[in-house]
Queue: 2 jobs
Job 1
Amino acid sequence: MSRRRQIYEGKAKILYEGPEPGTLIQYFKDDATAFNAQKKGTISGKGVLNNRISEHVFTLLGNIGVPTHFIRRLNMREQLIRQVEIIPIEVVVRNVAAGSISKRLGIEEGTQLPRTIIEYYYKDDALGDPMVADEHIACFGWASQEEMHDIADMAIRVNDFLCGLFAGIGIRLVDFKLEFGRLWDNDFSRVILADEISPDGCRLWDMTSGEKLDKDRFRLDLGGEVEAYQEIARRLGLLPEGDTTVLDLEKHRRRRGK
Ligand code: UDP
């Protein structure tokens, strides 16, 4: 168990105080929730894979100039991040119809959208994260117009980059969720990408078979969750062919009760 002071516990991650002011440690749990936490479960090994996948994606995004909270991975389940003030908006980017947009608007799952859609959801579990418009965000002061401009620009850049990254490994990036935070420097703040990018918050379909390689396996009781996450990590080059060392080590660690 970590002895550091816990700052916050969410559904899939815990935040601990970091080693220096302005830093935090982000710990990836194996817990999974869906349908506004009405469905709960554990996907053994998920946290290890998400830590690794998110590290990889945030590093690549940093390399193309997208500012992120990621500093470095510390161990199998933890990464050092910059402390930000989370903007209470979930930003969903959609390339293909699936999930809530299919249900709400009656668009068949798998329909390629003629243009990318960005949607905003107000982060509030008690309200079930309702969808909101720019108008609500401005009216209630959740983010400024300037911040929303930066957020939309970054979301499109992230989408363009990720579409290419995943297409290169035979994956269709259907949709995904991003979160942003304010990084304060005295009286000034700028918006940077926060949270994580992993199969927990993306829909990733195999381009040939259409197989779902993301959290929908859990949501829809399809089974094979960890294998799907592992397949994403493997295709990204994060697990050498046939190598399950990361997960084996993790199992070993858990068996010893550490
Ligand atoms: N998503 C997420 N957290 C949420 C809601 C959605 O990470 O609280 C992700 C989800 O994994 C999917 C995308 O955002 O990749 C769009 O989700 P959608 O609105 O279709 O909702 P869902 O079908 O997941 O309820």
Job 2
Amino acid sequence: MTTKVLKFGGAALRDLERVADLVVKNECERLVVVVSAMGDMTDHLMELAKKVHPNPPKREQDMLLSVGERISMALLAMALEKRGVKALSLTGSQSGVMTCTGHGEAEIVEVRTKRVERHLSEGNVVIVAGFQGVSLEGEITTLGRGGSDTTAVALGAALGAEVVIFYKDVAGIYSEDPKKNAGAILRKLLNYAQATELCEAGGVIHPRAVRLAEKTNLKLAISSYSKNCVGTIIARS
Ligand code: ASP
Ligand code: MG
């Protein structure tokens, strides 16, 4: 049974219809899609909170910020349904992403995949809201900025996925930032240590997610969402 996890960030989700088209193109027995909030939605939600309270209580901030990813997941499920694809969206909590209680910077302690697996076996593309989970006490938590990458890797590892594909506004990971340096070289194959170092310097994937992939020996791929072509593979060397 082949399983793939696709991860779409805020930039990709500015164009929801394109994301839905990319999901449709990925043929796989079991397909899970992890989404971030659309565009700058998380920043806007933070601004909203700050207008009400200069130092928002962390619990309520998590309740608010987790909404961004929920908007993406529901809209993407609708866009897939429109294309005749059986799809279903789940929050982090519904997906069994269990975390510690650290509001705003929670660590994933376990992924209870039973529900996701059931919906997959019923033939659904399962769309999961990234960046969020639920503590053992039942509180909604968020994983820190850029946390959806970690959701994608944690789910991929727990489901035994072959690969997690990150769709980005760049072709892959470069030796330097390609937006600042035209001479930057695309690195087609990286081991986890090399990828961690480049991601710590330049972004692309959250380094925490790369480290988790190393720990769980999970292959990662980076593709541009405009060209739909894998530019970088991260795997054990
Ligand atoms: N939406 C959250 C953020 O902007 C999480 C993510 O994008 O991974 O930080
Ligand atoms: Mg975001």
